[in-house]
Amino acid sequence: MGKVICIGFQKTGTTTLGKALASLGYNHTSFNQSVWDAYRAGDRVKVLSYMDTFDSADDGPWNKPDMIPLLDHAFPNSRFIYLDRDEEAWKQSVINWTIKKTGSKPNMKGYLKDYLAHKKFVDEYFVGDKASLLLRIDVSKQGTLNQLKSFLGFQVGEDEFPHHNQTSRLK
Predict the structure, then answer these.
(1) Which DSSP helix (H) or strand (E) runs through 135?
(2) Which residues contact 102 (CB under 8 A, 6 or more apart)?
(3) SS3 of 79, please?
């Protein structure tokens, strides 16, 4: 099998999925500032070279629509995991996280537009023979850890994701 790449949008459970992949034995990477800087500078060779040293990844730049086809091509037989999340819960998480990080409320219209565009891209990319490369899960729902394990060829068993990187709800 190739790589396992989480292509969920921010605040959909990417950290939780990343921790689950690491607990399954994957050499996992998450957000890395120098890789993000290389991505923003257009250095896809550096980004792909970095990914070559890991079994799995979550967060940016791996979830970016321009990266997904590159990863699919560079690492044949990879598996991709898209994270669904209730839209209202996602919005509240983005608000809480942004306020915690910046002290101000985010532009939710912009975030929502990007979130929906990302979802649309995933829906359109993973069709036909690519459909079998994608697993869609909501890490907050019962049964999804076993879906992940089955998708990746692991024996099913314990079936609840531990929740990581939870942003406290602001009052």
Answers:
(1) strand 134-137
(2) none
(3) strand
